[in-house]
Design a protein that fits this description.
The mean pLDDT is 96. The protein has a single domain, classed as Rossmann fold. 27% of the residues lie in helices and 28% in strands. By secondary structure, the protein is α/β, with parallel strands linked by helices. The longest helix is centred in the last third of the chain and has 21 residues. The structure holds ligand PMT. The site of ligand PMT has 28 residues, from helix 1, helix 3 and strand 9.
Length: 222
């Protein structure tokens, strides 16, 4: 994408993991480092877009030109996204949002004992599906899918079920995806598919911006 191909357009992105507290010192989390989402936020900003990045707990510096908001839980991430949705051209969910959170959050540190400890979990809101069904739905809604098997079927299922314009699917493992410098992606729209072979998340982000620009161009000529 050229330096100004997204000028005047605003994107809201999520990146990183969410952490769901169990007690004052413990949480449920996952291995997302935030790298993929931060790389995409930086690449969109270089293409001239205004970028609002809602980040879970990560150890990364904010890319130049990106406005960052830090959150911890899925519910905080949802609230931060909804507060920034009005007037956005695009929403891209790169975050690995926890699907469940503990039903009870202990006020005091849970004590160790010899008994089995059972955790009860309740589903978290699905941020991506919520954005795609909002009256203020951005023109482009894009998700990511992390899969350990049946990559294409699972990704196409999420594209349709969540009413997305694009989904970028990554296979987890093989030194790719979570907490790795490199990734490989298969990107799907309802009628197109792009294969982005293994490369750095920085370079992948540049390719994703090309696909995003192409998709918005197609929308405007349809
Ligand atoms: O952060 P890195 O270490 O660089 O790793 C990058 C990544 C592997 C985390 C990233 O490339 C990726 O695949 N992100 C999505 C991971 C994921 O949780 O996928 P999912 O299949 O569970 O979710 C599908 C989509 O729904 C995602 O866009 C996710 O943001 C969204 N979702 C999921 C659950 C939920 N409660 N709310 C959501 O919005």
């Amino acid at each position: 994408a050229s330096r100004d191909s997204l000028a005047g357009r605003r994107f809201v992105l999520t990146a990183g993991p969410t952490q769901e507290p169990l007690d004052p010192v413990r949480f449920l989390g996952n291995r997302s480092s935030g790298r993929m989402g931060f790389a995409l936020a930086g690449a969109l900003a270089r293409a001239g877009a205004d970028v609002d990045l809602v980040a879970g707990p990560v150890q990364l510096t904010t890319p130049p030109g990106v406005k960052r908001t830090d959150v911890q839980t899925a519910e905080e991430m949802l609230a931060a996204v909804l507060a920034r949705l009005e007037g956005a051209t695009g929403f891209i969910g790169v975050a690995a949002v926890a699907d469940y959170r503990p039903v009870d959050v202990a006020t005091h540190k849970i004590k160790k004992s010899d008994a089995v400890l059972e955790l009860r979990l309740q589903p978290n809101p699905d941020i991506l599906a919520r954005v795609a069904s909002d009256p203020r739905r951005p023109e482009l809604v894009m998700g990511f899918a992390a899969e350990t098997r049946d990559l294409e079927t699972a990704a196409r299922g999420k594209l349709a079920a969540k009413d997305l314009d694009l989904i970028a699917a990554n296979r987890v493992g093989e030194g790719l995806a979570f907490d790795q410098p490199d990734n490989a992606l298969e990107v799907f729209s309802a009628d197109q598919c792009w294969t982005l072979p293994r490369q750095s998340k920085q370079l992948l982000a540049e390719r994703l911006v090309d696909i995003i620009v192409e998709t918005l161009d197609r929308h405007s000529t349809d």
